[in-house]
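User: Can you predict the 3D structure for this chain?
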Amino acid sequence: MSKRTRHDLEALAYHAKPNPGKIQVVPTKKYATQRDLALAYSPGVAAPCLEIQQNPAEAYKYTSKGNLVAVISNGTAVLGLGNIGPEASKPVMEGKGLLFKIFADIDVFDIEVDTENIDEFINTVKNIAPTFGGINLEDIKAPEAFEIEKRLKEELNIPVMHDDQHGTAIISAAALINALELAEKQIEDAQIVVSGAGAAAISCTRLYMSFGAKRENIVMLDSKGVIRQDRPSLTSQKAEFATTKKIDTLDDAMQDADVFIGLSTSDIVTPKMLNSMAKNPIVFAMANPDPEITYDLAIKTREDIIMATGRSDTPNQVNNVLGFPFIFRGALDVRATTINEAMKKAAVVALAELAKEPVPEQVNIAYGETRLTFGSDYIIPKPFDPRLIAKIPPAVAKAAMDSGVAQFPIQDWEKYEETLLDRMGADNKIVRLLFNRARLNPKRVVFAEADQLDVLKAAQIVYEEGIAHPILLGNKKQIERLKEQLEFEADVPIIDPKDEDHIEQKNKYGEVFWKQQERSGQTLLSAQKLMRERNYYAAMMVNEGDADALITGYSRSYPSIVKPMLDLIGLAPGSTRIATTNVMITRRGPLFLSDTAININPTAHDLIKITQMTSGVMKMFGITPVMAMLSYSNFGSSKDQTATKVREAVSYLHRRHPDLSVDGELQTDFALNSDMLRANFPFSKLANKKVNALIFPNLESANITYKLLKELNKAESIGPIMMGLRKPVHIIQFGASVDEIVNMTAVAVIDAQQKEKK
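Assistant: Here is the predicted structure, written as structure tokens:
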């Protein structure tokens, strides 16, 4: 076995710790008392068993069957790893299960079958099928995959789909429809070249034909060249697309072609081939990780090209996650007996149409765009798009109903859409949004405690992820020793404020600070001496434009750092105070908590400012604020001063900012339970809304709450996010984890991006 790289070791640690694997089974019913257990198992469990015996369809009512998909593989065609066997494929299948859960709230059991015999595999799946509402076949090599899927679809009465075949087909078909529209071409006339003849390529081509592509206009190639009718020993699948044209090479096939579909290998398309294509060529180079031709080379070669790849770092990513979670969601929700062509085509049309609709601000923010609009760089929706779950499943469900394969038709489509949107909390996209946006314009971030192992680990991650350009501050020898230990070989700046090499810069910063503070009792010597302190030095780097943002706080108490930051950085224009908010990643979605670190006992005026600043941060994340101002009372039920100040703040916000969705004072349970709020206080501005921000009456309640959520619910926390400072300076909590530091670095980068625009 070759030597493991550091990335290999990181991946192994990720899969092994804190618990092995990526998915788990979680109880959904109470189990606290003997009565609960008697209902869950013996004797109570007999009642649903007998109901199901009488009517097998009742399994959908009394068990998890209706939301349970099996991801099944024999490990014969795993990613780019080939035939690695069933056990070795399990991490991939677990990963697929994770994607099902986070994007569509579908539960998964991964099943690895130890056979390459078609009949044995099919019989195994048939025998376990009663457990599941759907079957997702995965990573099975061609041509066996075709027969396995075909026979299982014929012999089972639940949805079956081999995603390797159909996932790419569905997403690329949506992209192709839109690309042809932009190119002002008809699919019936399009000359299409398909490089690759595996399961995905065959399925893609079949789906394109169902939308009107003509077989005589299609040329397919495999590793031996053009698949011609006169070639001997063709599989039935390849024979289906064999051409009569007397051509042999990709070079020949590309002459005057309108469309190139790549599902083969890297760097096989040359600029010469591109130039030989027709006007407004459509090129989908989907080989992963390296496409048939790189995006940069392709757009440099042809200005009129419309291009898609399988990569996330280029426009128009053909990503299967746009399809399979939502297709199965729609199929499960109507208890479809199959996933048929009508349902797949409905998903294609829904995806294509969604790309033409106005894009939510959250998506624009995620991709650093002022306004994403339908065009050559945007022909399919982005994976971050929150509309996917509300658009694709209904289209699939309706197609299932119209084609007669739905056993549980949907009656109320508005209510169905609401239930779909409620599932969005299962995938909190906010961290991925942060990272993606930061990568678009990474900034110079100074880490004031880079000689701490976890801080340096975080700096290494943000560097390798392209989130930020780290500047390492601290003991130089210690940093270099730790860098070596971490195999952090990048040439990044290391600054030790106490080192003689930086005395000139230190004195310069001291002089600037002295001039700023000369009427505050500060001497030049004392100011220069202060610059030996890393937080002062780091803050001056940001002030003087030698760094764009600052991360500190890992090894020191929060109050001890806040003062120097206020002294050096100062308040942002229009700000009267600073505050912090923490974003908690909860099952119901992101929840902002303010103020978690600064204001001990804020006044009504302070609460107004904290609310306004929190609203601004939420909009920076592309989230529409729905804010509850908390207390121990509801709408005047207490006349105590603590409740009264909240009431005053709410009254002001209602008068001066009527468009802001905020209300209070409210108890936490009423704020988070919209049904309870609507039943008891129907007049509230929050009665029919999902609250995503909680404003607390004092520091202790906010700080205690966020740390309780973090420890007891294992909710991921992003923060504290500093609000109200003039520059992007963020103070992490004492002893913050590596992940927390990385997340806050992404926040700091985005903060710097925003302040740069002003």
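DSSP finds 31 helices and 21 strands in the chain. The chain has a mean pLDDT of 90.
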